[in-house]
Amino acid sequence: MLLPIHIAAGGLAIVLGSAALIASKGQTLHRRAGLLFVYAMLTMAISGTILAMRQSLTNGNVMGGIMSCYFVVTALTAVRQKSVWTGRLNLAALIVVTGLTLFNFAAGFQALSMPGREINGVPFFMMFFMGTVLGLAALGDLRLMRTGTLRGGARLARHLWRMCFALFIAAGSFFSIRSRVAKVLPEPFTTPWMRALPVLLVFVAMFYWLWRVRTRRASRGALAPYINVQALDLLVERRQRDA
Question: Is residue 139 part of a domain?
Fold first, then answer.
């Protein structure tokens, strides 16, 4: 029964993640779609991890499921008020992402010595790519542990890129398999280029929003119709006082 749950949660995650990505940041639609996206991603990741572990503990989907959980949990805690619970989650996330980083680099070097320079169909450069992304995420976690909290653009950047990368994992898992896409989309949309387009659009949207957050205009409030940085900070601080 886990397989249909896994597939349904993955499809729902793609829809909800896309809605959150398009919606004005900080508005009701964005918050609700984003929270539901987290739940759908966790359901997809946990069910997928269990399914993969039934086949083999070394199955690459086991790492993919753990990685998905890591990204959505740390993206969510980025916009939650600081508490003992979020601190413990961030510490556990740092331990997990450090292990994932080492695993991916080790697997990448192992793949270099294998025939075809791949392991179970995964090329070595993809393992190094994922290891680099996870290493950068670990550095971000260390920064958060050192400073204690992030504000304004830094907080939004952490939230945005981690949510987008989780969406990339969901979209990549679905659109990479032609037979799966053919069940829900017409034939013209099952070509390699059309299947790669949604994954590419996730990255385009991610870099666009990161650019908007990082520009100097953001600090002057010019992004208010799109990303209400000041309102987000006030909301988090009010929740901290209430707690």
Answer: no
pTM for the model: 0.80
Residues 171-216 pLDDT 10s: 887 777 666 666 666 676 677 777 788 888 888 888 888 888 777 5
Is 45 inside any structural domain? yes
Q: 62: domain range? A: 2-82+149-242
Q: What's the half-sphere exposure (Cβ side, CA atoms, 13 Å) at 240?
A: 14
Residue 99 lies in a domain: no
Structural domain includes residue 97? no
Residues in the chain: 243
Measuring CA to CA, which residue among 191, 221, 242 is closest to residue 26? 221
